[in-house]
TrEMBL record:
Protein name: Alpha/beta hydrolase
Location of the KANL3/Tex30 alpha/beta hydrolase-like domain: 13-199
Keyword terms of this UniProt record: Hydrolase
Naturally occurring in which organism (per UniProt): Salinispirillum sp. LH 10-3-1
PANTHER family reported in the protein's UniProt record: TESTIS DEVELOPMENT PROTEIN PRTD, TESTIS-EXPRESSED PROTEIN 30
Amino acid sequence: MSRYLKNTSTNPQARILLLHGAGAPMDSDWMNTVAATFNEKGLDVVRWEFDYMHRRRIDGKKRPPVKAPKLLAELAEVVADLASWDGMPLIVAGKSMGGRMATLLQAQHPDLPITRLIALGYPFHPTGKPDRLRVDHFPDITCPLNIVQGTNDTMGGKDLVSSLNLPSDIVITWIDGGNHDLRPKGLKAGEVMGHLADTVRGIAI
């Protein structure tokens, strides 16, 4: 496979595949900060774009994500490719849609060599549609899952998520006042990336 963006580490303990969200590419400021921070924690970081986002990079035309089965097929190929590199433990993390696709893939294909999942701002439901929950597959996940979620996330805030009967082994780290980008309300523009980096550093891996 091509189209990988890598942040390599000296003597890494694991490799992390970091997936973008629905609307921003793999090298957005948000993704750059998260990748650099995971790298500081001793992880090799590999970023890659789903095909619809990669085509936008080529021709500049904005496209919505394609249907989940197509995204999952693409992601399965990438996971299999990364796992073939050197046998290093593979973590899959993703922002919003990327995190959702990672959890769906592992639930549907527990044989894939994914050792851990990290969802950064999990989209528990589409914006404004809390009745359309996206958690039915959670009981089928067979590896550790850590969700980092803002308490004010419009796609799943603390009040709603705390009311759900989720598997007890899912670890949710709450960002007080955080929105879907994990940014607390009122944070100054110059403080956003530093706060995001601190949030990522606090994730137990």
